[in-house]
Amino acid sequence: MSYPGGYPQQPGPPGGWQQPPPGGYPGQPAPGGYPGQPAPGGYPGYGQPPVDPLWGYFSAVAGQDGQIDANELQRCLSSSGISGSYQPFSKETCRIMIAMLDRDRSGKMGFNEFKELWAALNQWKTTFQRFDTDQSGTVETHEFQQAVTAFGYNLQPNTIAVLVRRFSNDGRIGFDDFVSCCIKLRALTAHFQARDTMRNGSATFRFDDFLQVAMGL
């Protein structure tokens, strides 16, 4: 369902992150893992607990505080191979990823946030591959519009054109730019929805609030 403003009831790409209500992402598994994992002895009768494979990627770059910044996230994602045959994520895209999940505004990301990001990236990758019908490694304007529509948005052609100009090279959007666009679209929609209390496609922002939302990504 789309509201008059063109955004979906649950905005943005599937499989995203937990956000403060309203307009959050679908629920994620309860926080677990590190720190606070059961001792190596495991649970009685069950042997040693399984180790989350993502922990290896994360712990290889995390500092003593158990957090990673944008530079460390870039190294982590590159070593994990999540980009597959696509270009590795740029530092700017990694900064946007951090900003999207940086609930305490520390400029860093913890392990649970990293797991949320990983789930979202995999689903964005699936969507990208689905609409890259010619398997060129990029999506063109009509393919991008189909992907945005699949996310539940009903955007005007002029808006689609603006997004394509912003995130494409010669009208083709690569995976890195696609993810960057998805994150910004999802974040801005969540902030807008929080202020669109009547669900009529209109919202009021104080100037400082607008700058924090627009410049914080």
Q: If you had to describe this structure to a student in words, what would you say it looks like?
A:
- This protein is an all-alpha fold and 217 residues long.
- The protein has a single domain (53-215), classed as Orthogonal Bundle (Recoverin, domain 1).
- The chain is 47% helix and 2% strand.
- It contains eight helices and two strands.
- It has helices at residues 53-59, 70-80, 91-101, 111-131, 141-150, 157-167, 175-195, 207-215, and strands at residues 138-139, 173-174.
- Strands 1-2 form a two-stranded antiparallel sheet.
- The model is unreliable at 11-49 (pLDDT under 50).
Write a brief structural summary.
47% of the residues lie in helices and 2% in strands.
Compute the number of strand runs.
Answer: 2
Per DSSP, what share of the residues sits in E-state strands of 2 or more residues? under 5%
* Helix content class: 40-55%
**Judging by the overall fold, what is the CATH architecture?**
Orthogonal Bundle
Mean pLDDT: 82
Q: What structural class is derived from the secondary structure elements?
A: mainly alpha
- Rg from alpha-carbon coordinates: 18 Å
Q: Report the end-to-end length measured between terminal Cα atoms.
A: 26 Å
Low-confidence stretches: 11-49
Q: Tell me the CATH topology.
A: Recoverin, domain 1
State the shape: globular
Biased composition (Pro residues): 10-24
Subcellular location: Cytoplasm; Endomembrane system
Pfam families: EF-hand_7, EF-hand_8
GO molecular function: calcium ion binding
